[in-house]
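Lecture 7 notes: from sequence to structure.
We start with the chain below.
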Amino acid sequence: MAHFKLVISDSTGRTISQELKDREAQPLVGSRIGAVLDSSIVGIANGKIKITGGSDKSGTPMRSDVHGGVKKYVLLSEGVGAKNLEGGRIRKLVRGNMVTEEIYQLNCRLVEGKLPEKPAAEAAPAEKAAEPAKKK
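Predicted structure tokens for the same chain:
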């Protein structure tokens, strides 16, 4: 069964991370990079998310111009999977643009709606840890 780590960001730069397993993750299987989906799949009401990328269990990045859910060696000069190439090209292993069960992390952008605020119980311990301890 599918198991995804979903990283959802909004236009302000805030991000949240969620893990989806089995039945929760099934609606994402078969979708492609660039697809706009209803955000109720991930528990955000009244919104839409757009799949922008991801990687598989071994860290191989997804690339939008490689079709299907396969791993391929492609000749890259720029873009996802090609770092610090100065005028050259290199053959790199990338994964296709389709979400399959081998995908581990999916990166998404919130197109409509708002990210949920952190619960007060979760925010309080983080604030206490940031305050320096006062000694008498």
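Points to note: The longest strand covers residues 103-112. The helical segments are 120-130.
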